[in-house]
């Protein structure tokens, strides 16, 4: 090894030792007779010092010629510092340097390698290898490693076995777009990259593996939003001979273990469980943030029939009670109105009722409702003097969606979404299908392999939209961390599902015949769950962006700006693959 | 859970317990008044029994209607068996069944789910989910899981962190063919799937991560041999601030740990190390099987100049001494001659010298060499009476290659390649470059990022073929398990390497500019190693075929015959990707 110690491990007990360190020059301070260098590596920072008169002049000379991010190897004596820095583990000592060797020089980095850098996103991505040197980024990747290995250790103890499923599979038209891979050896044919190992893990259940997991890359060729990546990682799990409850308990166990080991947060109680229907009704979202209350109250009975057309024509009148905000100014209320009216939310307007501290009530709908009526609203919310009630009305789904956003906004403004508080929640009983207006057909809400609740199967023929599924999501602080379902393991039911989803028998057989055939050879009852690993890491790390937890992320156009990929390939490659590019780039 | 216990955990201590088991019907025996069922799951087999008179007749009826591979749930009492089977952990007990529920039926499987199945390769691959039920296949995947998690635990303790590198990267023309992935969002451009995370792990070293690993899928679009897969798995590792010795020691540590934990084989001594030059000279191979001796001895000085034209014209006269085979018959010797003359080996013939037990010497070249001369040959090999000396002559490389195969053949015949003996070996000091006659250029023997030995750098300009690299392989029992090198970390040297490899500056910059640029910002000395994980598992499992250790392997045409992939994709998909397939399938 080129070093005897790392830059993070020497302390006052090491004083008197001669050591060799390697690392990057973080900072040089030259105070006339004294030169200090902060030497950095993955493990920390150690201060080097040289002193005119007692240090070798050649060494001081070398030190003065160093630049930021030079890589050096240095030898010296660990001594106690005069002026200690108790904020860092190595802060009580420094190295009295006797030798310095430059292992590699560095040009001046395009941005500062500091916790708060002066580099913008684009620049940091282009020089990601420098961005990765910054402590906050390194901590994110270390957290990710920790979460992965702890997950594996836990699941291994629970007798799960990690099995690698193939990356080169077959394209299926259901769901998101696949990335495809042309096969040279099978001309005109393509592999696809998996959106998830779904069918393979089900086959592993048919094969009797009974507890499978895999931390695995998945791929989706979607138009990217800020928080999506074309390749992402799942903790993918499946179990046989289980019911829904067993799966929830097992992965609640994993989640608690990770919280305890990594965040030192212990949950004494079971995670609460809420039906999809209740989540939509009470929070307007299938991933409610339950770190705070402000639950929805429906006001149809109180609001309608008072000649207020906005309410009378609405599919739903619904509101929240915001504690202590009765004193919101007109300007603040206008802001909130603009907030719900923005195109993404699309509410028509916002009704407010101030339940003033003096007990009086003042609303934006005083013309239509008298104080007694408004008091009954306040009672519905169990509002206290000083609270502000905000009400939306309109189409049921849109109104719930908008009020959900308003609730989150108000929770944020009031500091109720505390970063160090974690409120996990199982959302269960999702609908099996959702109707798509554009294509006039049902789509599987989870995926086509999800089983309907046995008690709802009779609805499949007549009212498929009402069938509930054995499907569940794990939601933490309003973020969907994982989701899964009990699967269909009966060939006929699976065929029926494909038919409801608009597949002909031939299409179903061509795409998923291998799975349905497998169901005929003793398929056990089974189900599973997948965690979005990038998001799980972001939640633990306290960030909204999964990109911060990926070593080499792509940008919103799916480009890696560091290696400049994707890129054109040679005509020879195209020819070998029997492909022609039909796109004509615009002349520059 | 649908069960209280697995089929592998009940024993005599469990007698008297009421239990619920689930699993697959392995076998039914109906002996008039008694019915036995072997119930199988991943954990073992438990015997169920029913008895006319004491068991519920309805249950017996159900049992008699079961078929092989039916999935059942059964309830019953654990009782001590009358006739015990001490070969299996559950062999002292059976379950007196009170209830049976069929969870799923099964058609008759196309082959028997037994250790020795009647199913051929093709059929087993098509129904891989049934093949995976067989105990030997399950044990292989369990071994693979065990090796992966133990590897991670070991490397984690050594402060390695696992970092995921991207799967969608950029195509590079050097080395094997890339699989490519058309980008819809970047029309006309392609990602490539990584042949290894080489450049990314080097960038992680530049980024200061100093100890990286990843168990990672890699991809190579090669014409497949029996033992290659288009997607395969590596244990990919890299370290900074190290010299070659540090890497060998670290991964020797990992290898010893795995042997100890998984195979209960402990190596007291360091693994031997041998230069590439010595390996070629003494074994004719860069991956010698050193479980046995039979080292090459060169005989140019003794064999040439005796008017034996075959020897006189040869680039090399070289032989091995096969212990105790002097009594080989003419027929056996003819067989060996045919063996070395087969086209893959291409030797012109085989010379033998029998050192008979009575001390006489008899050879196929008695015409050219007298007994004294042949005795000096025997002395060269330190041959004992009863030994057989086999000699080949011809072009150096071809002769070494053929003699290597002959040595392995003889080792096999004499039972010297013992499956339970493990002989690891580091082969070091590989040549940096190899000359390719066809394209008349040098290729990197390892890859273009491998550093030359400092003491050989002066040869780069004049005699590049003589330059040795800081490159090494881990060979166990003649199988290459891993390999790596100390990398170049200096931009100028890397540029020079690309130029020797025939890249123009522009090509080098376009393909690898990001890496060479990174070297300008403080790149530390670094190096690494990658294990072929599939092969490592096969070695531990005692198999020659990596396919046995992959859950869903592809066949020699790169096809997954179970899911029937690759396959054609829709015109719509092609259009979105701006692609046209130029291949016209032959009309059927």
Write the layout of secondary structure elements.
The structure is a homodimer of 588-residue chains.
Chain A (H helix, E strand, L loop, with lengths): L17 E14 L2 E8 L2 E8 L5 H8 L6 E10 L12 E12 L16 H6 L1 H4 L3 H23 L3 E2 L17 E3 L7 E3 L5 H9 L4 E9 L11 E10 L3 H20 L9 E3 H8 L13 E2 L1 H4 L5 H4 L3 E7 L7 H12 L9 E5 L5 E3 L7 H11 L6 E7 L1 H18 L10 E5 L4 E4 L4 E4 L14 H4 L8 E6 L2 E8 L4 H10 L4 H14 L7 E7 H9 L29 H6 L2 E3 L7
Parallel strand pairs in A: 3-5, 6-9, 11-17
Antiparallel strand pairs in A: 1-2, 1-4, 2-3, 4-5, 7-8, 9-10, 10-22, 12-13, 13-16, 14-15, 14-16, 17-20, 18-19, 20-21, 21-22
Query: What is the beta-strand fraction of chain A?
Result: 15-25%
CATH level-two architecture of the largest domain in chain A? 2-Layer Sandwich
Shape call of chain A: globular
The helix count of chain A comes to: 17
Helix content of chain A: 25-40%
CATH homologous superfamily designation of the largest domain in chain A:
Bira Bifunctional Protein, Domain 2
N- to C-terminal distance of chain A:
52 Å
Backbone structural class of chain A: alpha+beta
Q: Count interface residues per chain for the largest interface.
A: A-B, 122 and 122 residues
The average pLDDT value of chain A, as a whole number, equals 95
Strand order in space, largest sheet of chain A: 6-9-10-22-21-20-17-11
- Oligomer state of the chains in this structure: homodimer
Query: Total strand count of chain A, please?
Result: 23
Using only CA atoms, what is the Rg of chain A?
Answer: 30 Å
Which ranges of chain A are low-confidence, i.e. pLDDT below 50, for 5 or more consecutive residues? none
Instruction: Characterize the largest beta sheet of chain A: strand count, sense, and whether it forms a barrel.
Output: 8 strands, mixed
The CATH class of the largest domain in chain A: Alpha Beta
Number of domain modules of chain A: 4
Task: Classify the fold: give the CATH topology of the largest domain in chain A.
Answer: BirA Bifunctional Protein, domain 2
């Amino acid at each position: 090894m080129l070093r005897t110690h790392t830059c993070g491990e020497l302390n006052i007990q090491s004083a008197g030792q001669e050591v060799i360190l390697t690392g990057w020059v973080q900072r040089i301070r030259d105070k006339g007779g004294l030169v200090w260098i902060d030497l950095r590596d993955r493990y920390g920072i150690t201060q080097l010092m040289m002193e005119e008169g007692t240090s070798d002049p050649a060494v001081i000379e070398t030190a003065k010629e160093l630049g930021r991010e030079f890589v050096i190897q240095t030898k010296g004596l660990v001594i106690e510092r005069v002026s200690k820095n108790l904020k860092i583990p190595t802060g009580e000592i420094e190295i009295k340097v006797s030798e310095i060797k430059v292992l590699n020089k560095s040009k001046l980095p395009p941005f500062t390698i500091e916790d708060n850098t002066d580099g913008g996103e684009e620049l940091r991505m282009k020089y990601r290898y420098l961005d990765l040197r910054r402590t906050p980024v390194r901590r994110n990747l270390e957290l990710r490693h920790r979460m992965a290995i702890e997950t594996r250790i836990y699941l291994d103890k629970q007798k799960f076995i990690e099995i690698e499923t193939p990356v080169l599979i077959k394209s299926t038209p259901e769901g998101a777009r696949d990335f495809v891979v042309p096969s040279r050896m099978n001309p005109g044919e393509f592999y696809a990259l998996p959106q998830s190992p779904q069918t393979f893990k089900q086959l592993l259940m048919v094969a009797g593996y009974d507890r499978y997991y895999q931390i695995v890359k998945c791929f989706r060729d979607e138009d990217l939003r800020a928080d999506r990546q074309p390749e992402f990682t799942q903790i993918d799990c499946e179990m046989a001979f289980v019911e829904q409850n067993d799966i929830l308990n097992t992965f609640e166990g994993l989640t608690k273990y990770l919280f305890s080991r990594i965040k030192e947060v212990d949950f004494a109680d079971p995670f609460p469980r809420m039906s999809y229907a209740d989540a939509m009704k009470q929070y307007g979202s299938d991933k409610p943030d339950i770190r705070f209350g402000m639950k929805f109250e429906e006001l149809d009975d109180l609001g309608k029939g008072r000649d207020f057309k906005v309410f009378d024509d609405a599919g739903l009148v619904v509101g929240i009670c915001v504690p202590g905000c009765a004193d919101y100014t007109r300007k603040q209320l206008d802001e909130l109105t603009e907030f719900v009216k923005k195109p993404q939310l699309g509410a028509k307007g916002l009704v407010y009722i101030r339940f003033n501290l003096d007990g009086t009530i003042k609303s934006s709908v005083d013309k239509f409702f008298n104080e007694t009526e408004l008091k009954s609203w306040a009672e519905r919310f169990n509002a206290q003097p000083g609270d502000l009630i905000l009400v939306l009305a309109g189409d049921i789904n849109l109104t719930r969606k908008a009020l959900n956003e308003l609730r989150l906004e108000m929770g944020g403004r009031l500091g109720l979404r505390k970063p160090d508080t974690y409120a996990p929640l199982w959302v269960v009983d999702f609908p099996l299908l959702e109707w798509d207006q554009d294509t006039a057909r049902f789509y599987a809400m989870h995926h086509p392999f999800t089983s309907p609740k046995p008690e709802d199967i009779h609805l499949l023929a007549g009212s498929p939209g009402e069938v509930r599924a054995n499907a569940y999501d794990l939601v933490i602080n309003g973020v969907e961390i994982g989701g899964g379902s009990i699967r269909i393991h009966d060939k006929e039911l699976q065929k029926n599902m494909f038919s409801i989803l608009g597949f002909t028998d031939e299409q179903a057989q061509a795409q998923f015949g291998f799975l349905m055939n497998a169901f005929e050879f003793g398929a056990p009852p089974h189900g599973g769950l997948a965690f979005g690993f990038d998001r799980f890491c972001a939640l633990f790390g306290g960030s909204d962006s999964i990109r911060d937890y990926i070593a080499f992320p792509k940008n919103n156009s799916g480009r890696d700006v560091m290696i400049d990929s994707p890129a054109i390939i040679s005509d020879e490659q195209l020819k070998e693959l029997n492909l022609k590019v039909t796109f004509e780039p615009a002349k520059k």
